[in-house]
Automatic annotation (TrEMBL):
The protein's name: Beta-tubulin
A Pfam family the protein falls into: Tubulin_C
Keyword Nucleotide-binding (UniProt): yes
Family from the record: Belongs to the tubulin family.
Tubulin/FtsZ 2-layer sandwich domain boundaries: 39-176
Length: 205
């Protein structure tokens, strides 16, 4: 909703608009499984490269360029613009700001007729500019994949998958909301009526 209202300036986003964003990101992440391309990487390789420790497996995803459903053909973007937008907190699908944490690893998947050299230069620039937001104890922690087939209606696009410590903001927010509702015992009767015990919720918290 945040992206639809702030970035795409839609006053009343529908489920169709939300699904459009989700499908764009999912399409980007699974591109390398569906199309041939330079430096392709499958989901298994992505997971292996991006999870330094088994418990740190929560990813933030972003997409660029963000377009509303009707505005496909009017957008022309360059590789520098794509990389800039991709790392922008406003383009992230999770409501947490990467500037409040550090990237352990991240992956960028570019689609369309993109120059490999230009992509690598831009990714290096972004890394140098935001050096303090990357964990320095993991070398070569930015992975790039290229696919020559662009998404429908766009000349080029990029999908971002990042493993950042700032995801804790999201979990803290969910934890606080859970605690507030559990104190009031809101909706609890639905669960206890199905055989669950109150103790299970306390343990989960």
């Amino acid at each position: 909703y945040d992206i639809c209202m702030r970035t795409l300036k839609l006053s009343q986003p529908s489920y169709g608009d939300l699904n459009h964003l989700v499908s764009a990101v999912m399409s980007g992440v699974t591109t390398s499984l569906r199309f041939p391309g330079q430096l392709n990487s499958d989901l298994r390789k992505l997971a292996v490269n991006m999870v330094p420790f088994p418990r740190l497996h929560f990813f933030m995803v972003g997409f660029a360029p963000l377009t509303s459903r009707g505005a496909y053909t009017y957008r022309q973007v360059s590789v520098p613009e794509l990389t800039q937008q991709m790392f922008d907190p406003k383009n992230m699908m999770a409501a947490s700001d990467f500037r409040n944490g550090r990237y352990l690893t991240c992956s960028a998947l570019f689609r369309g007729k993109v120059s490999m050299k230009e992509v690598e230069d831009q990714m290096r620039n972004i890394q140098n500019k935001n050096q303090s937001y990357f964990a320095e104890w993991i070398p070569n922690n930015v992975q790039t994949a290229l696919c020559s087939v662009p998404p429908r209606g766009l000349r080029m696009s990029s999908t971002f998958v990042g493993n950042s410590t700032s995801i804790q903001e999201l979990f803290k927010r969910i934890g606080d909301q859970f605690t507030a509702m559990f104190r009031r015992k809101a909706f609890l009767h639905w669960y206890t009526g199905e055989g669950m015990d109150e103790m299970e919720f306390t343990e989960a918290e």
